[in-house]
Amino acid sequence: MDKEKLRARFAALRRAVLGKNCVCAACGADVFTEEKFCARCLRALPFNRGHICRKCGRRIGGDYPVCLECKAQMPLFEAARSAFCYEGDIVRLIKKFKTGGRELSEALAGQMAPFLREGGAFAGAQLLVCVPMTEAARRKRGYNQSALLAEELEKLCGIPFGRGVLVKTRETEAQKGLGRRARADNLRGSFRVHERKACAGKTVVIVDDVMTTGATADAVAAALTGAGAKRVYLLTAASVPSRPPEGAENVESAVKNALNIP
């Protein structure tokens, strides 16, 4: 039997045993377990570990309570966490996820799920919602990537996903290139809770792909708390690490100065 036929038979056997996703989501290497990333990538990918802001969850340069951005303006959500830092191969994977690679939702959600399980930062969550898109924007892309993540997390953690709870009422200017204040102005009033009873009195987790400044999550959190949600958290696949303002030599010195730490 030639090599091509052997390879085809082997691939068919792996699909039958392990399912359709038998290669690493990051590098394409063969994976012989139910894990969606190979062992090498699990060591190399930029997981969001170490020092993080206790509020927005982004990586910071030292063990300080909050980052400079949160100190200047506290987010409306209770807290946020992310599986990865938005850098390196994760930037490539997120971009692929947004531009047709919808199968990546399974791998990304798998790394987000521990935050929702027993012992996780958001254990006890009662409802998942995604950052909604307008119908026109969803049709243009073909799917809402945040909804795909929420659907996978619902399967993995058993927490209901409120598909129709939130709606986006109007198109907004692209957020890329806008500062935090401009992003907030751009999004103000663009989200509405369609099913108020679904979130009233509950602990709700907003699911999204990337947190940059937190402006989008703030706008969604404002709508949810206005509809009676008890607590609102944010869980993303990745977050942009916190950076010092212009003129600061590094994150550590900037945070020390802001918090009056000698």
Automatic annotation (TrEMBL):
Question: Membrane-spanning regions, if any?
Answer: none
Name the Pfam families on file: DZR_2 (PF18912), Pribosyltran (PF00156)
Q: Tell me where in this chain the Phosphoribosyltransferase domain is found.
A: 158-245
- Residues of the Double zinc ribbon domain: 24-70
The family database entries (InterPro entries) matched by this protein are listed as: ComF/GntX_DNA_util-trans, DZR_2, PRTase-like, PRTase_dom
Q: Of which family is this protein a member? A: Belongs to the ComF/GntX family.
Name-wise, this protein is ComF family protein
Taxonomically, what lineage is the organism?
A: Bacteria, Bacillati, Bacillota, Clostridia, Christensenellales
